[in-house]
Each structure stands twice: as structure tokens, then as C-alpha cells.
Amino acid sequence: MSFFSSMAAVMTPLGILWTVIILSVATFLHELAHYALARRQGVAVKSFSVGMGPVLSRVQWKGTEWRISALPIGGYVEIDGMAPVEGADGQFHAPTAGYVALSTWGKIAVILAGPVMNLLLAIGLMTALGSTTTLPAPATISVLAGSKAQKLGLRSGDTITRVNGRALPATELTEGGVRGGWNDITATLKTDGHHTFTVQRGGQSRELAFDWKAQVGGQRHLLGISPKEYRVFQASRIPQAFVTSLQVTAQAVPQVLKAFGNLFARFLTLNISQDQNVSGPIGTAEIISRAAALSPWALVQVAIMLNLSLAFFNLLPIPGLDGGRILLALLGAIKGSPLSFSQEQAINFAGFAFVMLLTAFVVLRDLSRFF
């Protein structure tokens, strides 16, 4: 299988579209929070871009140039006082107004707003997801792209009515798990042998026969199907769902930090082997493609983890990241005088270069799986 066909097998057009949407929303809200806290303190914002690279469209509104750029991943906000300004002599000088003139806590508020927004988005999505409950459903399935089920001819939306000629009872998705017909399906897939599924699709019934091994190489063999979920929102579940979302966020902190620590160790030793804990753009698109093939709720779960990862990563005390800028502001407060603008620029540039090298390493690690 060629490199491009290997990638196409794991990243569907729909998955790529959802990747762009989820990343763009997370980035837009992150930058919007920076924008809002800067404007709140009277600091001008020169430009706000959705996307990176060449500008496709721009409009001036409330003193800011709002842009749509060509590369649909990422974005940026250009806050007055965070970059050198061109003087009347044509030379660039350190700014004296805007962000640089804010108090220490004013600077921290502007920088901290972005990661906090991603945390709030993740908590909000977790609360919304936890405030839903499931409804009884027949054995209607979702099929994972590239799975054994897809190769057999099963499709998302199919309803399995019989297994090995035996009629299935209605499947009920509950808080405690899945009951009814789905249990019969999973029990069948735990046994070796020749099996048949009777499937309803578009008002027509068809029978699919296949030989099955429950374990392959000592590991459980997965067919690649899951029950299609039907959910309803219950306002009474919001308080408990909110508390649970806070607990999950707190529990995620050491796990995410450990994953990033492992990534840095691999980067320093140029170890491009996979650890399945941190994914680059290609790995993220693959995960989202798989989630898109399962259900909208799987996409919500991926969006939650993505926003948590963005928040925690940006809070790392690395110059060039939000956490690095916060650290520099705190160091200035501790020593009684801020670092000079040129010192901050040099430190942030070095940190930015490190982050770019780290990003290139992660992309290379993603690509290595397809060679």
C-alpha cells in the first residue's frame, strides 16, 4: 500500500472536515479570549485572524482588522504593545503603550484568558454530554472506517435483527450499559465459528455470513461496530454533570503532563516511535476520522480532550507559549522590575523556535507510521 493510500485509509474527507471545524473553533475561542481581555483593559488589537498564512478576506470593525486566512487550522490575534513598533525614523523600537504598559496582573489576565477559555469549553462540553440520557433503541449500529465490519459490507445505520437466525430483542442503551439485543451480538463475537447477521437497510433485509475468531495473536479481535446512540437532554442532571466534569479535568492534569513529559524526552533523544499519548495534526485527524464514523457523541469526546490538551500545553512554562509569557511576567514582578522588551523578545523567540522544532518532530512521528 502506498503512502497516500495508507493515509486515505485512516483519514476520511468527513474526518478532515471535522478536524478543521473542531480545531478552528478551539483556536478561535482561545484567541477571542485574548482579544476580549486586552480590549477590556483598553489595549488596542490590530488584527484577528481565523486561520494562518495568506489573508483571503479582511474587514475593519471596532478598530480591529478581522481576517480569514488560507490555512484553516490555527489563528492569531495581534495585540498592541506585544511586538516592536516602527518609528518615524523607519526603525523598529520597543513599544511603550498597550500590552507592555499593563500591570503584571493585567498582562497575566490577557495571556491566561486563552487557556482558560479552552478549559471552560471542555468543561462545558463535558457537562452537556453528562446531562444527556439514553433512549431505548434497536440494534442500529455505527461502523468504524477500515474495520472488519466495513469489509464485510456492514454500514453505519444498519439494524441487526437476527444473529445466527435468532431474533434479537430491542437493544436498550442505559446509564449502566447496553442491554437487550446488543448483548446477544457481543456474546456471539466472543465465540469462534461461522456466524450470520440478518441486517435491515433501507427497508430491505439481507444476510451477511462470515467466519470469526474471537482472539487474534492473543488479543481480542474487534469487528468494528458499536450501538448507535440516541440521547435526550435532562436539565436536572446538570449539577452532577458539572461536578463530574471538574473531577475529570483535575484527574486529567497529571495524565496530560506525563504525556507531554514523555514527548519531550522522546524529542530530546530523537525517538520517533509511537506512544499513542500525544498526536500531531495527522494523528489528530485520524482520531477525529474514526470518531466521526462512530457517532456525534464520539466527536464531542474528542473535542473535550483536544481542548484540555490545548489548555494544558499552552500553560506549560515554555517561552513562546502562554505559560512562558505568564512566567516572564511573574519573574518581573518578583525581581521588582520587568525584563527589558528586547530580553523578553529574545527569550520568546527562542521558545517559539523550540516549539516549532517540537511540532516538526511530532509531525515526523505521525508520518513515520505510513512509511
Care to give the gist of this entry?
The protein has 371 residues and is an alpha+beta fold. The chain has helices at residues 3-10, 13-40, 104-130, 148-152, 181-188, 238-268, 281-294, 296-314, 322-335, 341-368; strands at residues 45-61, 64-79, 85-86, 92-93, 132-134, 136-137, 141-143, 159-163, 166-167, 171-174, 177-179, 193-201, 204-212, 215-216, 219-220, 225-227, 231-233.
Description:
With about 375 residues, the chain is α+β, with helices and mostly antiparallel strands. The protein has 2 domains: about 260 residues, no CATH class; about 100 residues, Pdz3 Domain (Roll), CATH 2.30.42. The chain contains 10 helices and 17 strands. The strands form 7 sheets. The chain has a 4-stranded antiparallel sheet, with helices on one face. A hairpin with a 2-residue loop joins β10 and β11. α3 crosses α6. The protein starts with a helix and ends with a helix. The N terminus is likely disordered.
What spatial order of strands do you see in the largest sheet? 9-8-12-13
Cα shape: elongated
How confident overall, as mean pLDDT? 85
Q: How far do the termini sit from each other? A: 10 Å
How many helices? The count is 10
How does the major sheet shape up? 4 strands, antiparallel
The amount of beta strand, in percent, is: 15-25%
